[in-house]
Amino acid sequence: xxxxxxxxxxxxxxxxxxxxxxxxxxxxxxxxxxxxxxxxxxxxxxxxxxxxxxxxxxxxxxxx
Length: 64
Fold this sequence. Notes:
Strand 1 (6-10) and strand 2 form a beta hairpin. The chain is α+β, with helices and mostly antiparallel strands. 31% of the residues lie in helices and 28% in strands. The N and C termini lie far apart (34 Å). A 3-stranded antiparallel beta sheet has the order 1-2-3, covered by helices on one side. The chain is built from 1 helix and 3 strands.
């Protein structure tokens, strides 16, 4: 992917219509780069990024 694409449509996560539905790079590290991108509205993206931030904190705390 490697780009942002804006779409005015229904968010695939929450189901609400939004003009800020975009494909964005998530805070993930999948080998298959296609899996590192999500298409959501801004609110759902913020929720997802908070979830990934917490998961990475848990992961790195176990590495110490």
